[in-house]
């Protein structure tokens, strides 16, 4: 996967205020592991309400850093209206995990 974070939109949205951008990037990096763990626990439990809730959380956090592939992927899980959410969410999350890692690396690179 190439770029995940749209840094042009990120900088534009936060007015090129580097300190604010750094705080937002650090917040995403700091919370990503927790959010992923909670999402994985929701998948393991098979609780559709929790899967949707944690999809919504991941979508919002991803939107804050302009990680469009993550926003779109978690939006698809959150809004899925088919009969089999659990297999769909598992498959989609498997596709999203590499993008999460790319986004984290891009944000780490931005901070360095």
List keywords for this structure.
Four Helix Bundle (Hemerythrin (Met), subunit A), 112 residues, mainly alpha
Fold and architecture overview:
By secondary structure, the protein is an all-alpha fold. It has one domain: HPT domain (Four Helix Bundle (Hemerythrin (Met), subunit A), Up-down Bundle), CATH 1.20.120.160. Helices cover 81% and strands 0% of the residues. It has helices at 7-13, 18-45, 48-64, 68-79, 85-111. Helix 4 (68-79) runs antiparallel to helix 5 (85-111). The longest helix has 28 residues, at 18-45. The radius of gyration is 14 Å and the shape is elongated. It starts with 6 loop residues before the first helix and ends with a helix.
SSE succession = HHHHH
CATH topology: Four Helix Bundle (Hemerythrin (Met), subunit A)
Spatial separation of the terminal alpha carbons: 21 Å
**CATH fourth-tier homologous superfamily:** HPT domain
Number of helices: 5
The rounded Rg comes to 14 Å
Q: What proportion of the residues is helical, as a percent range? A: over 70%
What is the count of β-strands?
0
Strand content: under 5%
Outline type: elongated
Structural class label: mainly alpha
The domain count comes to: 1
Biggest sheet: strands, sense, closure?
Answer: none
């Amino acid at each position: 996967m190439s770029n995940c974070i749209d840094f042009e939109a990120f900088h534009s949205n936060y007015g090129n205020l580097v300190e604010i951008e750094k705080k937002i990037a650090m917040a995403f990096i700091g919370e990503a592991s927790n959010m992923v763990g909670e999402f994985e626990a929701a998948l393991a439990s098979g609780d559709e309400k929790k899967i949707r809730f944690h999809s919504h959380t991941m979508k919002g956090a991803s939107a804050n850093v302009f990680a469009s592939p993550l926003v779109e992927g978690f939006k698809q899980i959150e809004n899925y209206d088919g009969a089999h959410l659990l297999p769909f969410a598992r498959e989609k999350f498997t596709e999203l995990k590499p993008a999460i890692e790319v986004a984290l690396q891009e944000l780490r690179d931005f901070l360095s």
